[in-house]
Specification:
- This protein is of the alpha+beta class.
- It has one domain (2-116): Roll (PH-domain like).
- The protein contains four helices and six strands; from the N terminus they run H-E-E-E-E-H-E-E-H-H.
- The protein has helices at 2-10, 49-54, 77-92, 103-116, and strands spanning 13-16, 20-25, 31-36, 40-46, 56-63, 67-75.
- A three-stranded antiparallel beta sheet has the order 1-2-3. The chain has a three-stranded antiparallel beta sheet with strand order 4-5-6.
- A hairpin with a 5-residue loop joins strand 2 and strand 3 (31-36).
- It is globular.
- The termini are far apart.
């Protein structure tokens, strides 16, 4: 059983691009998953104490339409979620723009900066 868990841990791969996330788990029968950023509502991380110490956990991707896709024994799941949130923030607020937590205020400031060509 322990060897099967190690194989699952070592063979899991994940990637985040500017358009989608991709996760592959498994060795003999690989399971691949792809979803665009616009279809993802949230990414939940479940980590036990041994998982926290050894650097593995479960990622649950919550998609639109109430889809839940769990992926177990993913390496460094908190880093995966952090990178996804960085990409999502970059997509919603391109670099060089001032964005606030309030979208209306951010939109007004973006238009102001565009009109007067200020560089934040």
């Amino acid at each position: 059983m322990f060897i099967a868990l190690l194989i699952a841990y070592w063979t899991s791969e994940s990637a985040i691009t500017n358009k989608r996330i991709m996760i592959k788990t498994g060795f003999i029968s690989p399971n691949t998953f792809e979803m665009s950023h616009s279809k993802i509502e949230s990414i939940n991380v479940i980590q036990s104490v041994p998982g926290r110490i050894l650097g593995y956990g479960t990622i649950v991707v919550m998609g639109t339409g109430s889809t839940r896709d769990p992926f177990v024994f993913i390496r460094d799941p908190l880093e995966f979620r952090r990178k996804f949130l960085e990409f999502r923030a970059e997509i919603s607020c391109p670099s060089g723009w001032f964005c606030s937590l309030n979208n209306v205020t951010g939109t007004i400031l973006q238009r102001f900066l565009l009109i007067f060509r200020f560089s934040p």
